[in-house]
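B., you asked whether I could sanity-check this one before it goes into the benchmark set. Here's the sequence:
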Amino acid sequence: MPRARTKSPASAEPKSATVVPNVRDHILDRTIFLMGKMGTTDVSVRAIAHEAGVNVAAVNYYFSSKEQMIAQLTERFMLGFNEIMTLLERTDLPPEVRLRRWAGEVMCHLADYPGILLLMERQIAAEPLDAFGEALRSAMRRAVAQLKSTLRELVLGGDEQRLTFKLTLFISTLAGPYPRRLDRGPEKRSVRAPAQRARFLDLLLEHLRK
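And here's what the prediction gave me:
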């Protein structure tokens, strides 16, 4: 069981002078980033501490075991994933609006977590899977099914092969700017910039409607 957190020991405080509002969430957030960067969930406590800017003692303080950390990572990931997926499930909105909002959020997420695609790619084939890997695989299946359903509305049916092609095109195009790393182009010309991202999605959705 984790120890009570009424008062953190000095050794468990972040190294930086900047106070992190929620150290536990910050460590989890940077762990997800690091796993994506390395393409594996098998990362060391020392590497996690370095990425999060805290002492190793902080990681051990907030997480009693690697299994507990993985469980909390899974919960954190699924909360964020479920929030994004609700954008596709708003049946009161036209399919194009749902796809645009969902795609915009996904593009921002891919920019903030470079390498997450590599992690997902490896988890598809990995055996056995840990809890986080299982969550990733389940999330991918759900996303593909919901995307296909929404695209079917957008293109008004069509044969299954055509629909599958458009789904593949949509997913691979979204992933294109972030193959393995952060989009490093000038901010004002990058798809990280709202105006450029909106134009990117305009062109993509226009192509899908054809």
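One thing to flag: The chain has a mean pLDDT of 80. Otherwise nothing jumped out at me.
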